[in-house]
Every structure is written in C-alpha cells, then in structure tokens.
Amino acid sequence: MPPPTASLNPKAPHPKTGGNDRAEDHVGGKPDQKKYNDEQDALTKEIAQVKTKLDAVRSRIDLSRAPKSDDRRSQLKAEMDGLRGEQGKFKDERNKLFTEMRKLQDNLNKKIKDVNAQRQKTGFKNASELESQVESGSMKLVDEKRALQEISQLRRAQKTMENSASSDEAIAADKARIDELKAKLDDPEAKKVSDRFDSLKKEMDALRAEGDKAYQERNKLFDERRALEKQMDELYGKKRASAQAYNEAKDAYYAKVQAIRQARQEKFKAEKAKEDAARRDEEIAQMREDAKVPAYTSEIEDCKLLINYLTGKSEDTQTTAEKKAGSGIAGVKELEVRKVEADFAGMRLKKKDEELEGFFGGSGKGKKKGGRKGQASANGSGTATPTTPSNDAVNLPLGMLSALLAFGIQPPSGRDDVARTVSDLETKMAWFEANSAAQTQKEIERVEKLVAKMQKKNGDAGADADAEGDKDAEEKKDEPAAAATEA
Fold it and tell me: Please, are residues 133 and 221 in contact by the beta-carbon 8 Å criterion?
C-alpha cells in the first residue's frame, strides 16, 4: 500500500480574523462609547449640582426644628453653660472684693471726716505752728493773747493731735488696700471668659434668628425640598436608563458579531468536511486500486530481466526498479540519485579473501572453487605480484548487482557460476509467483479494514480531532506488519 500522506489527516486552517474579514466590520449598530461616556458625565455633574442645593435646603429645615444633640446650637448652649459657671465663680469673688472695698471706703470716709472736723476747730494744724507765729511778732497783742490761749489749749489737746497723726497713717493704709482690691477686680482670665461668652452669645442669637426665619418659611422649604428630590430621582432614572440602553445595544451588537462568526465557522467546517470527504473518497479509491495490483509484480519482472540478461536472451540491462526510479511523476520534482562511476573495462569484482591475498603474500591459502584464476602468489621476496583479469569473469551493471543483493542471491563469480545464479533467480521468481495471489488478497483485506476504520471514525458526529491522530497511528502500526508479511 502507499505510505500514509498528510492528506489522510488534514489540519483545519485557522479562519482569518484580520483585515476586512473581521465580523465587526460587517455588523452595524455598534453603540458609541464616547457618546455614552459624555452623557453619563453630564448627568453626574447635574446630579452633583442638585445634591448641593438639596443639602442647603435640608440644613435650613433642620434649623427650624428642635436642636439635636449634635446641632450647632446645642454645642453653643453647652459651651455657654460652662462659661456661665466660670463667670459665676468670678462674680462671687468680685462680690467679696466689692464688699470689702465698700467697708474700707466707709471707714476711710469716716476717718477723713473726723480729722477734718478736729482741724477745723483749732484752725491750725499743730501747736508749733502757733508758737512760731507768736515769736515772730507779726501778730497783734489781742491776737497774741488769743494765740497763747489756743497754745495752751493745743498743749492740752496734744494727745488728741497725736491721735490725728495716727489717723492719717490709717487713712493711707486704707487707700492702699482699696487700690489693691481694685487691681484684683481687673482679672485677665475673667475678661477672657467674658469675651468668649459674648462671642458665643452673638452666634447663638444669629442662629436663633435664622431658625425663626426658617420656621416661618418652613412650608416653602418643604416644597423646595420635594421638588429637588423629585429632580434628583429623575436624573438617577435617566442615568440608569442610559446605562441599560447602552448595555442592551452592546449585547445585541456582540450577539450579531457572534452569530456571524458562528455562521462563518459552520460554513467553513461544512466546506472543509466536504473537501475532506471528497479527498478521502479519492484516497480510498486509490488505495483499493493499488491493493488490487498483483503482489511482487516488480520483483517478478526484476527476476525475469536478470535471468534473461544472464542467459543472454535480452540486451535490456535495466531492472524494474531502475525504470521506476527513472520515470518521473507529473508535478513531483525528480530526485537526484547519486551516480556511481562505472568500473573500467575488463575489471572483475574480487572477494575479500582475494583482496587480502593480494596484500599479504606470505599467508598463502588454497584455491577455492577450483578453476578460479588470478589469485596472488607469494614469491621469495614476499612482494605481491599483479593479477591479470580473467576471461571467465562476469561483469554486471551496478543496478543488476544491487537487485541480486536485494534478493539475497550471491552474484556469479564467473561464467561457470551463472547457472547457479539463474537457478536461484528462478526459485525466487517461482516463490513470488506462487505467493502473489495470497499476498494480494491479504493486502486487499488490510486496505478494506483500514478503509472501514476511516469511515467509522469520520462517520461519528461526536468524534474530535484526536480521532484522526489515532487513525494515523493505526496506519503506521499496520505498515511494519505488511513489511514482515512480504519478507
């Protein structure tokens, strides 16, 4: 049978996906990605703007309601309550200071009043001043008498004057204490707390005013909030509808692309299956035709040619193998067979023993197959003597010599050995002729089994691509068995 070819196990070519053969180029209605992205971005920006307005309205509505624990007004109230506690402490301390200052001031005023009244009675501040005026003589006699009386009175009231001096010191001490208490009233920490309380009170008043205003227009704010929420829902609905429409269009587009690809793939598979079926039918017919050719035809022809040549009945020196090698096949490049230079005229083929005898003259051996001439003999000097070609030698072309060796027949060593060679060839040819019909029938049966396997595998709809590899392995497995049968 012919050797397995690649046509028995063809490989499906990959469908073209580049260039103008892409399915995407033949399908319209692909959604515009850029247009979809721009639409989504515009809706997102509009939603953000509406959300900002809605948050502002909700904040104003919260102002009209009772403050919560995390509300700004609640935070301000808590901080102001804490500041009021601190202010109460500072106020108690100030009240104590004011009470003490008031007592000191009352005592001071009383002391000053008593001293002034006492000094107004005497008209002088002290007795030494009066004595200095009397001694200076600037006073009239009557005034001097009156002054002397006063001096005597002042001396008597000296103790009282001394008490007046001590009152001045007490008055100065009271004034110093009052100044010290006034300094304590100007505490910077108390001023800081008072300023912080005033700022918080201003903020609280502003929030209350805004809350009162929001409460008055609360219904209007509710209507505005509902309108903004409705607008927000509409925008989200548009965004979802846009995304859904884009996804549906994209799915429909890729479904069309997939359908075109599937149809193209099925068409390709159908055409390939049709081509493979035609190719298989052609190869099966060729295999059956080759199997029907009688076995050993070329071997029988070679035997006939060799017999005719050796018996002198034919001048054709080409065997069937040489003819086949020389005949070209249409569409196939002719093989370049290595050419071997022919032996020169008169040359006779030698056996290994004859060649050794020519080189080693000292090891003389007896003649084999008596009648053979041209063996080398040793002389006394040990040098080899040249041999001369025998007239009984049979010169065979290289092709015939190769054919004899292929049949396992020893080429004739001389003309006397031709009969033996012819007898061997006739025996070999008779064996080929006797076994030709049986071998041909075996070949036909083997081919029919192989054809049945091929048809069974190709007829199975669920078979995958590995089945063809198994068929190729079966073909390769059957070839060694056929070769062993022929041998």
Answer: no
pTM of the complete model? 0.34
SS3 for 384?
strand
Dihedral pair phi/psi, residue 384, rounded to 5°: -85, 140
Nearest by Cα to 283 from 454, 461, 443: 454
Residue-wise pLDDT tens digits, 172-208: 777 777 777 776 666 667 777 778 888 888 888 888 7
Quickly count: other Cβ atoms within 10 Å of residue 163's Cβ: 13
Which domain covers residue 421, as residue numbers? 293-313+396-461
Question: Are 162 and 308 found together in one domain?
Answer: no
Per-residue confidence (pLDDT) for residue 101, from 0 to 100 = 77
Altogether, the residues listed in the chain come to a count of 487
pLDDT tens digits along 248-304:
999 999 999 999 999 999 999 999 989 988 998 899 999 999 888 998 899 999 999
Q: What one-character-per-residue DSSP string does 10-30 give?
A: --PPPPP-SGGG-GGGG----
Rounded mean pLDDT of 130-157?
A: 67
What is the three-state SS of 289-302? HHHHCCCCHHHHHH
> Cα(98)–Cα(105) distance, rounded to whole angstroms?
10
**Which CB contacts under 8 angstroms, 24+ apart, belong to 251-257?**
252/29, 253/27, 253/29, 253/30, 253/31, 256/27, 256/29, 257/23, 257/24, 257/27
Where b means 16+ CB within 10 Å and e means fewer, 240-269 reads eebeeebeeeeeebeebbeeebeeeeeeee
Residue 352's alpha-carbon distances to 186, 358, 377, 477, in angstroms, are 143, 10, 16, 40
**Spatial separation of the C-alpha atoms in residues 260 and 23, rounded to whole Å:** 6
307 and 438 together in one domain: yes
Together in a domain, 303 and 450: yes
